[in-house]
Amino acid sequence: MESNKREALDETCGAGVLNNTACEVKVKKLITGKYVIACTVIATVTSTLLGYDIGIISGAILFIQKDLNLTTVQVEFVVGSLNLIAIVGGFLSGWLSDLIGRRKTMAIASVIFFVGAVVMSVAPSFEVLMIGRLTAGVGVGFGLMIAPVYSAELSPAKIRGSLVSLIEIFINFGILLGYVVSFAFEGLPTHINWRVMLGLGAIPSILLAVGVIMMPESPRWLVTQKRIVEAKEILMKTSDGDKEEANLRLQEIMEAAGFTYVNPNIEPTADELAAAFSERKKQGEGVWRELFWPTPAVRRMLIVALSIHFFQQASGIDAMVYYSPVIFSEAGIKSKLGRLGATVGVGFTKFIFIFFATIYLDKVGRRPLLMISSAGISACLVSVAIAFITLHINNTHGDTLISVNVHQSTKTSTAGAVITIFAICSFVAFFSIGFGPVAWVYISEIFPLRVRAQAVGLGVIVNRLVSGTVSLTFLSLSKAITPAVVFFIFASIGAASFVFVYFMVPETKGKTLEELEKFFGAKDWAGHLTPAKRMNDKTENSEQQHTIEMQSSH
Q: Which pTM was predicted?
């Protein structure tokens, strides 16, 4: 037992520092208990709203088009509008969460999406349906911003990656749920089934609204509001009653807020609070100016975080989902029910592999999973492109992604179809173990507290803008340059993401949010080493220097 303790201290604080109490607190195993996990799970229910819409609309739109007599352009608006309007929600929610708190913002998100789901389910016309879609889209934007911010601010550093990655689990669960619901209600009359499908989307928002009542506020947001005592109480709960751990986390948060001297055992006086916040802007004030005219540190954060979100969507995950029913048809699955069942299988694969990331994010780290993911999706996209050529899928007929028909070759390659189906499943698997969850984990943990909410909102804007662009241009590109060439383009973007991660993305595993802020502000960012290597080197040098000082003092 003693030898294990010494190894942990030597690894974190340098050899010979066994009696350093602060270091002992740092390496002490964090036991979070059920409380912090339950709070994070409730917060990430917001992600289910997006996932369910992605899954359900692919089936429901077939019946909506028939029931409401929609034109091709109207169908495209119904399908693509939610992603684009989510940008508005992402923009507004960052500002609002700094103003009224993370918890209340989640409650507002649930109400907005509930209203949107109800309006969609009773819509008598295209115009009313669009009002519901746009309303729900704003709610989705709110949820995508607030879930990672809240989860990261509430979670201890040692398991932050796993808890924030629950966002991607719930997105995938929502997609799978949407597929299953479409499969289950497909047999109802056309004027009823799609209304039931869309109306059931109100259930997650109800669960979230109930859950918010039991959730605490973010302790980091409370510190910015000078509510130190409340913040400490919440940190005690999320540290499973470990007073030393709670004090350490509170001290780091308060130092980041501007306190020059912090004693977490004593409540700050009015003069101390005034001194700490005298030169600090009110939470949320001037943040957009800081993001658009950033300091070098914030600029580095923006480049890394927003690029990861760009690569997540630009690699063609949505396009792959849109084409999977067509490929299944080529493989011999001709019935609508059979193709829908096969699509459920793809959704199930995507859902299962996200658990791999949840388990290993805080063990292996963010950077290795991103590199494995980018290499894997690139290889799969190349395989799909080659299989498209083998299957002679060289052009499309029809005007929407919903009504795509594939040119039927007289001799379809069974091997090509098998390769394509395997590649699709492999693609969603590689996506789920890396870019899917890590994009949300990374952006929620690297920004300083004063800009975190708006920065994550900016990430949502980039994410949804790229997703909407891919969705709205995929068919046109496929018709203009053939689907195979499009997938080769997606593969090249995946390869570019591998290079970007290797040279620009540092590891953040196990670091507190305040430690990450200091790292990105370091002057030695530039150089021939990768950021990840520089971060490790900096830590090792600091440890060696500390050990030398300890030895010389003796």
A: 0.70
